[in-house]
Write a structure and sequence with these properties.
Largest sheet: 5 strands, parallel
Helix content: 40-55%
Structural class: alpha/beta
Number of strands: 7
Number of helices: 13
Strand content: 5-15%
Length: about 300
């Protein structure tokens, strides 16, 4: 694939005079182009849904969800991975973000790292990759050697593999089991794929991780019932979640949480079923942590 064939690298005809626009004209153009991103993702929703199901399957079987990319794409994967533990109570070693060049590349580019196909392989080998894991490769161009090498290695090992790029029929799309390739078109600033392409990747990552957590019982109704109350803000959020789920005042929610060491799920189950904290926890354990299933069983 030559540079001219990359949609994400071509010049946008509507921004040829970008440097002459007023500030308001400039941000209006940015905004107009950003609106195209959800439309591009809409055509890829069946692939996104397939990725969610595969991620839930991998995590449910004890495997890991591993994001891997270079530059902006790598940073977005690390960001999404880092937000899963506090939001859904998942241990940080279960959802991992890798960036070409290592953690230092989050703040400063590491020259040549993204061009090293074998580096992607070695990074996965360092994690002791197993067939139960799922690897998601991110590259706006769809051809980053670091990502391509990693995806080929992971797929050969038997892992579920997904790619997220912004160019159709890219090398990584051909290498992965599931290809998610929203074509957002040329960037307003030519080649600056931290813009529309980065936004598209972020939106897709949001859907994959959140959707997988819903499938794994980390959500009841539309509430984050596996949130870990590790500070005052999160304890307050836990109290609000219990109150919303059970239709009770803050005092009653707080009293229930005090009996469960601020574990939200058993507190909700206690209030909705009248069971003790120990009985609520036992019911959740019996149903693999799925609150709705435990509640239905108790009420049956």
């Amino acid at each position: 694939m030559n540079l001219g064939a990359l949609v994400s690298e071509t010049r946008h005809p509507d921004s040829m005079a970008l440097d002459t626009l007023s500030t308001l004209e400039m941000v209006t153009l940015f905004n107009q182009q950003d609106r195209l991103v959800p439309e591009a993702i809409a055509t890829e929703l069946p692939a996104v849904a397939a990725a969610i199901d595969r991620a839930a399957q991998a995590l449910g079987a004890g495997g890991r969800l591993i994001y891997l990319g270079a530059g902006t794409s790598g940073r977005l994967g690390v960001l999404d991975a880092s937000e899963i533990p506090p939001t859904f109570g998942v241990p940080p070693e279960r959802v991992i973000g890798l960036i070409a060049g290592g953690p230092g590349a989050l703040l400063k580019a590491v020259e040549g790292a993204e061009d090293d196909r074998e580096l992607g392989v070695r990074d996965l080998q360092h994690l002791r990759l197993t067939p139960t894991d799922m690897v998601v490769g991110l590259a706006a161009s769809g051809r980053t050697p670091y990502v391509l090498g990693a995806l080929c290695y992971a797929r050969a090992l038997g892992c579920a593999t997904v790619e997220i790029s912004c160019n159709p029929d890219s090398p990584i799309a051909q290498a992965a089991e599931i290809a998610i390739s929203p074509v957002v078109g040329p960037e307003v600033l030519t080649g600056s794929t931290r813009m529309k392409s980065g936004t598209a990747q972020k939106l897709v990552l949001n859907m994959i991780s959140t959707g997988a957590m819903v499938k794994l019982g980390k959500v009841y109704q539309n509430l984050m019932v596996d949130v870990r109350a590790t500070n005052a803000k999160l304890r307050d959020r836990a109290c609000r979640i219990v109150g919303e789920a059970c239709g009770v005042e803050a005092e009653q929610a707080s009293a229930a949480l005090a009996q469960t060491d601020y574990d939200v799920k058993p507190a909700i189950l206690m209030l909705l079923s009248g069971k003790s904290a120990e009985q609520a926890q036992a019911a959740l354990t019996a149903h693999g942590g799925y609150l709705r299933a435990a509640l239905a069983d108790i009420r049956a």
